[in-house]
Amino acid sequence: MPIAVLLITDRPEESQKLERLLSLWGPCDVVDLHRPARSGSVPKRLLVSDVDLSNRMAVEAVRAQIADSRLRGTPVLCLLRDQSPRLTIQANAIGASAVLPAGLPAKTLLEEIGRILDPLGHGPIQQHFIAASAGMAEMLSAAAEGRALPMAAIEGSIEAINRAADDPDLGAWLEMVWNHDDATYQHCLLVAGLAAAFARKLRFPEEARKLVTGAAVLHDIGKARVPLAILHKAGKLTAEELAIMREHPQMGYEMLLREAAFAREVVEATRSHHEYLDGTGYPQGLKAHEISDVVRMVTICDIYAALIERRPYKAPMTPQEAYSTLIGMGAKLDADLLRAFKPVVLPG
Fold it and tell me: In what residue span(s) does the HD-GYP domain sit (predicted)?
């Protein structure tokens, strides 16, 4: 049975970013106090209150929502918009295991949640994963809202992923990514982890590794402008929805061009990671000589990641099945790079 996180909020629109962050730890159920409902019988790993505790009725509503889980010893995190002594006492009175200010940077919040869930501490891979996830969250949030991309967060995410890839056990990274319940985050972290391991396997120097991993981190940034109803749809997209989804490479490309802060290969990867060497890809129908090696690597990782992703509506392929599918694509992919990719995903 899956173990979920429960987010209780009185501002559901503003809490969407928080919901996506919490999905790092598993499926995130949301209770809107303006439309109260029980969250179901799925065991909770963590309860998070993003509620104005100065409102007495809201306090009682939160207390009712967490009552059953508190009896089972589930930790409760209260995010306070006002850290006055009165509200801190109120949070403790309803059973908070920890109290933090609302609006913490993503990385700090994820690290604090990690300490609540694992008081004995994380291993290095999990620390890198938290840092990478936080950077990804800040990047996608800024892109969705039309703000300048957070360069420090992006660079921190790239560094964390490359350091995680220094560990030859790719499986540990994949297991943590598969736990992420947000499809976009899961996919981007999968592709970036695979690309980082691929560049390491090819013995790229550090700067070249940063370039490849950076291209993978940013390749789907255009999806930040695609409606969540389409991104998270469980099942086949309609023709209209598919047309909207297929706009994400061009949207990402234009976004990075406006920033004027990224290497040409990284910008190319946002627009061209769905191109194939035989000219049958999109959005431009590029052919072999028009597609850089960095883009070719990201494309291989992108397709492989999509095949092994764990989603409620889709059984993942095994590594062998996914690699065989890539081989079966023939002239669409770079055969030499595909051979070099094999020991990354099928070691031994």
Answer: 162-348
